[in-house]
Amino acid sequence: MAEDAAAAQHIQLKAVEVQFKIKKSTPLRKLMDAYCSRLGLQASQVRFMVDGERIAADDTAEKLGLEDEDLIDVAMEQTGGNL
């Protein structure tokens, strides 16, 4: 029983890091589509965010003030969850 309780306190997580090189003036829709294609996802299944704010498809790196090595967070879209 003690082993089961200890095992329940640990989880294993995996993250996918994909790098893209784009012009600052390129709409981020191109990056979003490439990311989804590479991972076999539908664009409607994921949310792209910078500093917790959702990215619009027509946003550009320049418009968002993104620099080299900045990160864009990608999360699975969730609906519902309210009981």
UniProtKB/TrEMBL annotation:
It comes from the Eukaryota. Pfam families: Rad60-SLD. InterPro entries: Rad60/SUMO-like_dom (IPR022617), Ubiquitin-like_dom (IPR000626), Ubiquitin-like_domsf (IPR029071). SUPFAM superfamilies: Ubiquitin-like. Residues 9-81 form the Ubiquitin-like domain. PANTHER family: SMALL UBIQUITIN-RELATED MODIFIER. This is Ubiquitin-like domain-containing protein. It comes from Polarella glacialis (Dinoflagellate).
